[in-house]
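Per your request, structure below.
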C-alpha cells in the first residue's frame, strides 16, 4: 500500500535553477541586432518604442504614457524631452538620438498620430486616443 505520509513537505521553488535579481544590461551588439531585426521586419512601432526605451531609460509605465506632444515641438521630433516620472514625481530629461527621431517620425507619419495620441497603443487597429497600452506588452517586447 502506498504511504501518503512520505510526501516531501518542502515544495520545489518556482525559480530553482533560474537567475534571479537584476539582469545584466544589453550589450551594444545585441542592441544593434534588435534594431536591425525590427527595421528589416518593418515593425515601426516596436522600433520607435525600443529606441526610446534605450535613449530615455524610463520605467515601462512612464514609457507607455508618452504622448506625441511629449517628444515633438512644432511638428518636429525634439532633440530633448522632459517628463514627470510617475513613481518619483520628479522631472526627467533625456536626449532623443537621430535613430530614435527617425523611428518616431516614421511612426507618427505611418499612423497619422496627433499630439494628443499616445506614441504606443494597445493594438494595430484604429485606436481611440483614450486607449492606453498595456505595460506588460512593453516589457515583453523589451525582453523583461
Amino acid at each position: 500500500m502506498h504511504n501518503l505520509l512520505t510526501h516531501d513537505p518542502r515544495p520545489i521553488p518556482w525559480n530553482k535553477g533560474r537567475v534571479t535579481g537584476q539582469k545584466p544590461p544589453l550589450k551594444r551588439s545585441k542592441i544593434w541586432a534588435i534594431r536591425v531585426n525590427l527595421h528589416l521586419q518593418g515593425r515601426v512601432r516596436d522600433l520607435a518604442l525600443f529606441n526610446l526605451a534605450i535613449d530615455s531609460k524610463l520605467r515601462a509605465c512612464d514609457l507607455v504614457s508618452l504622448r506625441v506632444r511629449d517628444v515633438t515641438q512644432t511638428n518636429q521630433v525634439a532633440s530633448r524631452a522632459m517628463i514627470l516620472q510617475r513613481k518619483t514625481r520628479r522631472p526627467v530629461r533625456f536626449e532623443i538620438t537621430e535613430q530614435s527621431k527617425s523611428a518616431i517620425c516614421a511612426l507618427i507619419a505611418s499612423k497619422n498620430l496627433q499630439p494628443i495620441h499616445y506614441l504606443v497603443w494597445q493594438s494595430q487597429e484604429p485606436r481611440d486616443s483614450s486607449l492606453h497600452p498595456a505595460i506588460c506588452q512593453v516589457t515583453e517586447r523589451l525582453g523583461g
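The CA atoms of residues 70 and 81 lie 7 Å apart.

Regards,
D.
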